[in-house]
Amino acid sequence: MENKIKEFKHLEKWQDTLASCIRCGYCFEHCPMFHHTGWESDAPRAKIITAFGLLSGQVEPSESAADKMFSCFYCMRCEAACSSGVPLTEIFTDAKKDLVEMGLKGPGTTSTTQLNCARCLICVGACPHEARSYDGNGITTDPTKCKACGICIEVCPAGAAKIEHHFGTDREDLIERASSFLKTHDSAKAIVFACNWSYYPELQA
Q1: Left, alpha or beta for 139 (phi > 0: left; psi -120 to 50: alpha)?
Q2: Contact at 8 Å (CB) between 70 and 107?
Q3: Angle between the 63-70 and 88-101 helix axes, to the nearest 10 degrees?
């Protein structure tokens, strides 16, 4: 186990905290990712178990493990609901850091189509998570910081920024569904609930 812990230099500080999760599953009903996919493996409890498994050597670092660890909206509703006070999103972030350093990257992070990018750096300044930077050749995204909120997509004048996996929250899809509902219900009003990181100004009209 000691060798495994050395591989996870960011995650290792949570070794005792991971054991404090009582696996109650109360976080399930508060997790939008779980409601979106319906898979228990996408729920916060499963991510904690995966993190524990990675640290103990019971789970091998893999694309599958990274996929589950990166599949998070960072709405933090699981943390608010956790009766054990486990800082889940902080643990997820540190697990992601270790996985990225191993060459593994999951979905959800934004990227840039370099041929379309004008190098204006507007997205770099607009990102509230400091996830985007310019390395001299183009825009890069730190997948451990990116929350896939979509702000960079909104501010990019060239349309070069994109989200690789929107987890069912694609902006155009949401706008189309909301508009379709309003067109077929003359007296109805639509209220769209988004997580605290989301940026969909068109839906506020």
Answers
A1: beta
A2: yes
A3: 150
Residue range 179-203, pLDDT digits in tens: 888 888 877 776 666 555 555 544 4
Say what the pTM is.
0.73
Q: How many CA atoms lie within 13 A of 66 on its CB side?
A: 19
Measured distance between the N- and C-terminal CA atoms of the chain, rounded to whole angstroms = 54
Q: What is the largest CA-CA distance in the chain?
A: 64
Residue type for position 92: F
In the chain, DSSP finds a helix count (H) and a strand count (E) of 10, 4
Sign of the Cα torsion 20, 24, 30, 34 reads positive
Sketch out the chain's domains with CATH numbers: 2-101 (1.10.1060.10), 110-163 (3.30.70.20), 171-204 (no CATH)
The amino acid present at 142, given as its one-letter code, is: D
Contact indicator for 108, 165 with CB cutoff of 8 Å: yes
